[in-house]
Specification:
The chain is α+β, with helices and mostly antiparallel strands. The strands form two sheets. A three-stranded antiparallel β-sheet has the order 3-4-5, with helices on one face. It has a two-stranded antiparallel sheet with strand order 1-2. The chain is globular and about 65 Å long.
Length: about 160
């Protein structure tokens, strides 16, 4: 029989459901600031090609404390809301995607962060387009997926050789 991690995890949870549910240390950890810190910092520091954000900093505690204590966007001053709310006012860590050195900038709301990252990106009602002119040569790329275009833009502007179709 082939090992199936998903099935094993499901069965393990079912077998230990009551024990896990009543474990005070587990419940406290799941609600703790330390869990949120560990999760966010791991995502921030992981390189983009591995699914992270690629934050480069010598003082990660400064960035974390600034993130934790920020109540308003440093660009538009909107009060931060719940994650993935309809106004786009949740906290994000804004940083330079094209830098190989210290790249933290500030704490912004999602809307401001996307406006800054969306320079040279537009939507025509059907597809997202990235368009940039360097030294008189126009470069264009389009996709139905907004995030593919943003990632493409970051890679292109960082100087990675990208094949266009």
């Amino acid at each position: 029989m082939v090992f199936n991690k998903k099935e094993w995890s499901k069965q393990n949870y079912l077998d230990n459901k009551e024990r896990l549910k009543n474990c005070p240390n587990r419940i406290a950890y799941l609600k703790s600031v330390n869990r949120k810190k560990t999760s966010l910092l791991c995502g921030w520091k992981t390189p983009p090609k591995s699914g992270g954000f690629g934050l480069i900093t010598d003082n990660i505690n400064y960035v974390w404390n600034k993130y934790l204590n920020s109540t308003n966007c440093e660009r538009c001053n909107v009060k931060f809301g719940e994650f993935h709310n309809s106004e786009g006012s949740w906290k994000t860590m804004h940083h330079d995607h094209n830098s190989n050195s210290e790249n933290f900038r500030n704490i912004l709301c999602h809307r401001c962060n996307m406006q800054i990252d969306s320079k040279n990106i537009y939507y025509d009602g059907n597809r997202y387009h990235y368009s940039r002119q360097d030294f008189g040569i126009r470069h264009r790329k389009s996709s139905k997926c907004y995030y593919k275009i943003v990632i493409y833009k970051w890679l292109y502007e960082a100087g990675y050789a990208i094949e266009t179709n």
